[in-house]
Amino acid sequence: MPVELYRIDDRLIHGQVVVGWGQPLDIGLLVLVDDVVAASEWEQELYRMAVPPEMEIRFESVESAAAKHDDLVRDKRKSIVIVADIGTMQRLVERVPGIRSVNIGGIHHRAGRNQKLRYLFLTPDEENLLRAIAARGIAVTAQDVPSARTVPLDELLSGEAAA
Amino acid sequence: MSDAAQSVTPRGVVIGHGGFAAGLISAVEQITGRGGLLIGLSNSGMTPQEMQDAVREYVDTGVRVVFTDLPGGSATVCARRVSAACEGVVVVSGVNLPALLDFVFSSDEPDESAKRAAERGRETLTVIGGR
Question: Which residues of chain A neighbour B17 with C-beta distances below 8 Å?
């Protein structure tokens, strides 16, 4: 079954993902793609305990996620692939041509980032990374929860969305 | 808040989505008249690191119990990171009003108070009526 959502969210596993998206979409499988988490049993246990029993969570590096993507698409369960940052998503889309859409779910404020939406702050470099992902023909949009408006990348980067 | 309440040492941090913590703490204070025992934090607009730092700030002043809303929420993940780094700090996820009321009246050690509060929270979640 195709992956329901390829999401960038600096909180990784949290309420909006597990409940906000997970319940209405009937998600059975979460794939957390992060090289650091994939190499740390302790980090994995932290996130595993945050997932309800009816959901499975898998931990992959970018390389292993790309290698197993075909298997993921064949899984009968609905799934979400989640990464913490734009750079990780860019590395993933470079290796997985089948990704046709990317959801930006939350990137919070830090020094050097400019506000684009209530839940989205980007540095100029991050904006360029998103443009590079979109240039591959991938639909890049921002949407924190399913009931929120989907904001296209052009609108985000033009500053119209924050106005 | 009264002067007496301001002099009380906080015993617990409540952190969750939106106005969850502020609402619960307001209810606790209304019911018990005891203010200042709980610190409320919202995860709104905060990075995971900011949440962790905010909880850590109170843990460093002596708070040993962190209450969170969703077991799978970002606040719980951050609180568990603090708990792992600070010996004696416990996390109670899925907190509700009866659990917090029990906690503020308890004079036991923090971990015992937390366990009993969690039990009380579970016991009080009931369905009334229906077929």
Answer: 15
